[in-house]
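Aim 2 progress. For Sugar phosphate transporter domain-containing protein, the working sequence is reproduced below.
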Amino acid sequence: MKTSGKLFTIGLITFWYSSNIGVLLLNKYLLSNYGFKYPIFLTMCHMTACSLLSYIAITWLKIVPMQTIRSRVQFAKIAALSAIFCASVVSGNISLRYLPVSFNQAVGATTPFFTAVFAYLMTLKREGWLTYITLIPVVTGVIIASGGEPSFNLFGFIMCVGATAARALKTVLQGILLSSEVEKLNSMNLLMYMAPIAVVCLIPAALIMEKDVVGITIALSKDDINIVWYLLFNSALAYFVNLTNFLVTKHTSALTLQVLGNAKGAVAVVVSILIFRNPVSVTGMLGYCLTVTGVVLYSEAKKRNK
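Predicted structure tokens for this construct:
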């Protein structure tokens, strides 16, 4: 029984890594290499898949018990989180059009820095001084990596920093807004409610900012049917990223999750460099290593503070 449990956990972690890195690389391929220059529409496809698959997983497959929204106030809170979640995913996808995955991951690794800043500004929650010191290499590493990035693009960099900050803001806000036991939702139920709201926000945004995107996608599919399969597979993967993240959190310890999360970024960097062959500099890699080291030290410092 123990062996089958171990195998299940290993399989789950493998699927988690594959879906996370797969969606990242496929986003990059579609937006940059394939030439599908519509990040808002791509995010809308992701959110539509998350809406449908979340509903099927919770109501039919009963992966987790269904939690209901209890008040208009709770719905307003979920809508606010959805808007930030949406902004984060769109900004991240836009940044992939302009930046290599390796640099995108380096900037993404600074999430703890933004989380600590927002937690302090919004809840006045102070960490120990050691925790703040560990954030210095996190930020310094990205500054070094930016200076040594051969494919640096300022707009892409701003979008990537925005996506990282929005992700941290959502985490902090979620802790504040849905803190009461009555309003607390597990991540799968929260996704089921957030994703349709995100779709409603993204439809007008895509139609206004990415003119005739539906017509262009249909025309593209007539020339190359693969685009349809890419979009369907990519959208399904976007849901499985959330599902596997939830299951890995449930079946492993917080420490294991932290270690695996830090390693995942490094694996994504190596795989993306091997696939896309984007130029990397020694300075850029040193900066990224410094950031990851800072993130590991930050996790350790937080653990000791508890």
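The longest helix spans residues 2-33. This observation will guide construct design in the next reporting period.
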